[in-house]
């Protein structure tokens, strides 16, 4: 197991290198630049800016400079957030995004799996139908609709919760953005759980467990759920990476100082260094969570072996 | 396939074997919810693709007098609005309005002035959006009192209009055409690539799996916006490109899920039996691995479709998807979300169609899952 983890961590280095390389050149092939504003800058200013940020040098030299700096943890200055380095921006925003994303993931996972299991146990009943309808609505209504509707109801009409901001980080500030983030994922987990739970409940070993007269709760929770969690766990990795690196829409609606907006703003403003920072960030999350999931496979289903 | 009953002697009546797909089709036909989903889906598709032929308004036709009007089954303009309009016309023509009557699609009005009225004053009527073919019927008192009659332009906007004065009904139909096409095609692309890639990676395992999954991680991390922009620069902006880009992004989750299932499946007895019979890797993947992953795959497809449709609206927002005056449900919904307080119908109508489509797709998906499950005959 330790050898497997070490090998995977070793293969993360070339993966990151390829991600950085492709992203670096991909960005430069896209038209537009960080200082191409609607009103063009005077040529002299432009020249100075390009020199300051070393954008006037040949592309391969910029690439080598970037790579050698990035290895030492220096991701360069941001072009649009002046006076901030990319590392500072991400370092400041990331804790907020991770905290919010973690709670959202927890809500989505626990809520989704519970709802999916109940639906599977009562297959084709009214309860099953209503849970799955709720899940369908959850996947259908986009964040940019859920967010404003939640603020409208709970913050403006009922005045129960703050409309946005992080405040002192207490739960009341987290609830609404957490729900808006979690809802679509919760629906996915519920659907995936229901589908594989129905299959798992028909399996031979469940029939055997029932024949032994084990209590229904033990049969469902320890035996059926263990096998049924496989697709849920598969989806966990991309979902966790997406939630914990923040969402531009939710962070904008609830004015949360996270990193999600940098993904969109950086790309739209051609802030090359900021985009590279977000790319490295998401790559690390994806690699780590995929590794965690691959280990979880082995724990859930002993037939899965990594060799 | 682990079924013991399949080893029993063949029944006399069942000598003609049925293929997996024939059986699936028969079982699917019996599933009422799934068939209802099919009918619903068909109706929505007919509404979107055939509906525009019967719609009196084009999707890009602008009605400048009817900007952001709420949905109503009544004809526009209503009586009081017509009265306001005709008074405006009378004011511009510098005449006095004595009487004004509306019957169905035509109107009659009596106008008077101190000096004889030039019959060409009817042009003032025609210039307004509401009236046309205005003619002088009778002239009295040496042309100082004119009786004019003409046709009314009455329009029906059952879904209301948008802030540009376009008929929302026609736009929802057009949006349906684009969103259904994008949703179905992009999901099929991601389904095809994801299932084959994931099953191959999981089944072959070892070094191949390691490399194939690292490639998935790389693709996950690439900045999506730039990927789209560069593709558009190279291939030009086209409708097909939208499918390709979205399909190219959405297959990654599918591949991870199928690979996870395959890792557990390949240690099962029936796969071992197939290997012992000397089937090739590809035959085993195609006949034994992929059919057994169908459950989570179909569930996930029903999740991908709404994702894809909404992703298309993000591309449109970046200026890379479909451009105005063309539209899609995703674009209509995001426009509606911006006007949620002032004009809620802009959000409600596209959402109803979107949710209805998703509901019927989910029922079809659940029916397909039950029908295609190889363990359950």
From TrEMBL, chain A:
Q: Give UniProt keywords alphabetically.
A: Cell membrane, Membrane, Transmembrane, Transmembrane helix, Transport
Topology in the lipid bilayer is annotated as:
Multi-pass membrane protein
Chain ranges passing through the membrane: 12-30, 100-121, 141-161, 173-192, 232-254, 274-300
Name a single GO biological process.
transmembrane transport
Where is this gene product found?
Cell membrane
- Gene Ontology cellular component annotations, sorted alphabetically: plasma membrane
Q: Which residues form a coiled coil?
A: none
Predominantly, its location class is membrane
CDD domains in UniProt: TM_PBP2
Task: Name the Gene3D superfamilies on file.
Answer: MetI-like (1.10.3720.10)
Pfam families per the UniProt record, alphabetical: BPD_transp_1, BPD_transp_1_N
Can you give the residue ranges of the ABC transmembrane type-1 domain?
Answer: 94-297
The Swiss-Prot or TrEMBL record describes its family as follows: Belongs to the binding-protein-dependent transport system permease family.
Q: What is this protein called?
A: Oligopeptide ABC transporter permease OppB
UniProtKB/TrEMBL annotation, chain B:
Report TM segments: 33-54, 178-199, 289-309, 345-365
Give the coiled coil ranges: none
- Residues forming the ABC transmembrane type-1 domain are 176-365
Q: How does it sit in the membrane?
A: Multi-pass membrane protein
User: Can you supply one Gene Ontology CC term for this chain's record?
Assistant: plasma membrane
Q: Which BP terms from GO are recorded? A: peptide transport; protein transport; transmembrane transport
- Subcellular locations according to the entry: Cell inner membrane; Cell membrane
Tagged with keyword Transport = yes
The cross-references to Pfam families, in alphabetical order and at most eight, read:
BPD_transp_1, OppC_N
Q: Which residues form the signal peptide?
A: none
Give UniProt keywords alphabetically.
Cell inner membrane, Cell membrane, Membrane, Peptide transport, Protein transport, Transmembrane, Transmembrane helix, Transport
Query: Is the keyword Disulfide bond in the record?
Result: no
State the similarity comment.
Belongs to the binding-protein-dependent transport system permease family. OppBC subfamily.
Q: What is this protein called?
A: Oligopeptide transport system permease protein OppC
The scientific name of the source species is Neorhizobium lilium
